[in-house]
């Protein structure tokens, strides 16, 4: 029985490891969705502003046409009344030597014809203004729809994280109960061996254990999980990506169960399974203690005379300057650590919205900003910038990506089989051994050395 339990434990370890990867990918999909929502919202605002401008121009064009048309009507009346006008325009156009009324009428008709041309031109301008206004309104409708669709995708992504988290919690709990059974069986066999040297005694005690095991209700969880707390603001996203599965490092890697328990402890807390109380007065002091001294914007570096190697060294030096900074989902910009994003769930439980820090893509965009390279705040988008090089040819300064379509995590390669990364919630920016398990087949090279 013990061997079969061990086999089942191994199966659970594989299942837990797969679920860990799934959680990482889904969390990063939320990261992408949040950026897409922000971009769509910006586009919708721009479209709204364009409608306002187009409306204003259309109104002004209408007013100009109306004024010109009124002026033309006055001139035509003056021309056909042959002198029974107010006299202002006709007198101004009459030569001092006394022309006849017919001459004045001819002049007025010529002026009226010119004014008619002006009205025609203004009418053309009005048609163009109205056409622009209609196009702007259509663009606004499309932009609003895109913003709504992006928000829906973000909501679905958040829900998928919660579902995968629940599956991970369930698998980890099943493994824990199974491990308890294995330990109980192993102790029973050990007691049998100690108390009886003959095989019959061992078999008798083991049979007693099997009977009691069959009569025992499955061991429950050590603590029932309360229902997830309702997020304070379900309209905004979830936490940043965690690192890809680590390859063995010196000292040996933790087991899948240990890693799962660690991840589950973090994520379960985030979704309300075991909330961690924290007073508002404690947060600012903690945040101040966690952020390194590099808070002021770094002065721009002139790269005009730099070699590729010097630029890479500058990028890496800037990245290393924030080692030890906390991980905050959505944190990091071109100037350094920033407070994370409020998401009503994971990031809020870690209080990322009050604590400056970096996520993985925030760290890389901060580092490369040292040489004027501007990157988007999402690993999947960064993967499509620069030159793709086979993973086997990775060099110092390259970006390595993990997960399907670079959607899980990214890090900056330092050389000597080391990389700089902001791994996951609860961790900090750190230098880690290079790992390639789960990595994309290509790295991205933004600077040629």
UniProtKB/TrEMBL annotation:
Amino acid composition bias (Low complexity), ranges on this chain:
232-258
What domain of life is recorded for the organism? Bacteria
Task: Please give one Gene Ontology molecular function term for this protein.
Answer: cysteine-type peptidase activity
The record places domain NlpC/P60 at 309-449
Q: Which portions of the sequence form the region Disordered? A: 217-258
SUPFAM superfamilies under this entry? Cysteine proteinases (SSF54001)
An example GO biological process term is: proteolysis
Entry keyword annotation includes Protease = yes
Q: Where is the signal peptide?
A: none
Q: Recite the UniProt keywords alphabetically.
A: Hydrolase, Protease, Thiol protease
InterPro entries per UniProt: NLP_P60_dom, Papain-like_cys_pep_sf, PG_Endopeptidase_C40
What family does the entry list? Belongs to the peptidase C40 family.
Q: What is this protein called?
A: Cell wall-associated hydrolase, NlpC family
Q: Which organism is it from?
A: Tsukamurella tyrosinosolvens
């Amino acid at each position: 029985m013990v061997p079969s339990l061990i086999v089942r434990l191994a199966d659970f370890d594989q299942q837990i490891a797969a679920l860990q990867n799934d959680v990482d990918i889904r969390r990063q999909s939320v990261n992408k969705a949040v950026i897409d929502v922000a971009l769509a919202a910006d586009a919708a605002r721009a479209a709204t502003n364009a409608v306002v401008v187009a409306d204003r121009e259309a109104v002004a064009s209408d007013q100009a046409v109306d004024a010109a048309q009124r002026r033309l009507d006055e001139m035509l009346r003056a021309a056909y009344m042959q002198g029974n006008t107010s006299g202002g325009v006709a007198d101004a156009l009459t030569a001092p030597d006394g022309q006849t009324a017919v001459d004045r009428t001819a002049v007025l008709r010529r002026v009226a014809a010119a004014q008619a041309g002006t009205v025609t031109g203004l009418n053309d301008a009005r048609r163009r203004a109205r056409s622009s206004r209609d196009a702007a309104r259509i663009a606004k409708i499309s932009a609003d729809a895109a913003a709504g669709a992006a928000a829906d995708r973000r909501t679905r992504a958040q829900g998928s994280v919660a579902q995968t988290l629940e599956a991970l919690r369930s698998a980890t709990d099943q493994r824990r109960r199974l491990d308890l059974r294995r330990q109980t069986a192993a102790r029973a066999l050990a007691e049998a061996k100690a108390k009886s040297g003959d095989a019959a005694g061992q078999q008798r005690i083991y049979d007693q254990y099997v009977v009691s095991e069959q009569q025992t209700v499955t061991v429950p969880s050590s603590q029932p999980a309360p229902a997830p707390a309702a997020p304070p603001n379900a309209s905004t996203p979830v936490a940043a990506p965690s690192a890809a599965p680590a390859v063995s490092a010196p000292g040996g890697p933790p087991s899948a169960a240990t890693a799962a328990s660690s991840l589950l402890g973090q994520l379960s807390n985030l979704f309300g399974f075991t909330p961690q109380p924290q007073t508002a007065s404690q947060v600012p002091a903690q945040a101040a203690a966690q952020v390194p001294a590099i808070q002021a914007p770094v002065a721009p570096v002139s790269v005009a005379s730099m070699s590729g190697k010097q630029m890479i060294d500058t990028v890496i030096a800037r990245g290393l300057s924030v080692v030890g900074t906390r991980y905050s989902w959505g944190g990091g910009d071109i100037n350094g650590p920033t407070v994370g994003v409020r998401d009503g769930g994971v990031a809020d439980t870690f209080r990322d919205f009050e604590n400056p820090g970096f996520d993985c893509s925030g760290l890389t965009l901060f580092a490369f900003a040292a040489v004027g390279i501007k990157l988007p705040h999402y690993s999947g988008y960064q993967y499509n910038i620069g030159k793709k090089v086979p993973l086997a040819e990775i060099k110092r300064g390259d970006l390595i990506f993990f997960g399907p379509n670079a959607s899980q995590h990214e890090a900056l390669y330092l050389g000597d089989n080391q990389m700089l990364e902001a791994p996951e919630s609860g961790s900090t920016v750190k230098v880690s051994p290079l790992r390639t398990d789960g990595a994309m087949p290509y790295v991205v090279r933004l600077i040629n050395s």
